[in-house]
Amino acid sequence: MNLVSGNIVSAQRDILGLPVCDLGWADAFAFAEEVATMPFGQTVIAFINANNANLMMRDGEYRAVLERQVVFPDGHGVDIASMVFHGRKFPANLNGTDFVPALLTYITKPMRVALIGTRPSTLKRATENFRHHAPWHDFIPISDGFFDRAKSDEIMEQVREANIDILLVAMGSPAQEKWIDRHVGPGHARLVLSVGALFDFVAGDVRRAPLGIRKLRLEWLYRLVQEPKRLWRRYVIGNPLFLYHVMRYKLSGMVVKRTVDETAEAGTR
């Protein structure tokens, strides 16, 4: 089966009522490269993990935004949900922290990549490290994440004038997804990704878990140990809450078995 056709992802799974892409690494890279190199159109990619899912369950606006975007699975939590709902894990953990740098390596055609978000010093270091990581691309820091939101259209006009191919937005969820939905449109970039804390990791402000822990999809536990005061609520309370939502949704019998014919062209404009 051809899982990717144009800018449509035809393989998705229902996770708490949200269509989530059912792609391995190779198909995810091929899809993202294809839409990034198209001469027109725009595709927005977001990532769903247990914390974001909890936010979605109480924020109808956030859910509606995600339904208009292409959503990739991130972390062990959505794998558990997929096992409960569909009897199998997702073929790949397409979290933004790993996916985006790998995608920039995968795309060999020189791209113009804009960065918006995080603190000014972090944005500067992240841009420099991206340039070392994939020097054939042109990385352009547009703005940190503390600009006056009333000036969002001015920020996006800078993006338009820079003739950007890929736009990375790091504001945290759900703010980044909502901001993209409101202010980013055709002509700003062919591929737009909401990347959360990616710039902090790339800049070296936040240390990644050892590779073995990441392979076990337990980086959340490593981060909790590193930053218990900031993250305890997200994981100690959030993880059981997510499992509650999963079991409640399962018992409701509302799980949708999505097929190619039922999949809408979410995330494209």
UniProtKB/TrEMBL annotation:
<dbReference type="InterPro" id="IPR004629">
    <property type="entry name" value="WecG_TagA_CpsF"/>
</dbReference>
<dbReference type="Pfam" id="PF03808">
    <property type="entry name" value="Glyco_tran_WecG"/>
</dbReference>
<protein>
    <submittedName>
        <fullName>WecB/TagA/CpsF family glycosyltransferase</fullName>
    </submittedName>
</protein>
<keyword id="KW-0808">Transferase</keyword>
<keyword id="KW-0328">Glycosyltransferase</keyword>
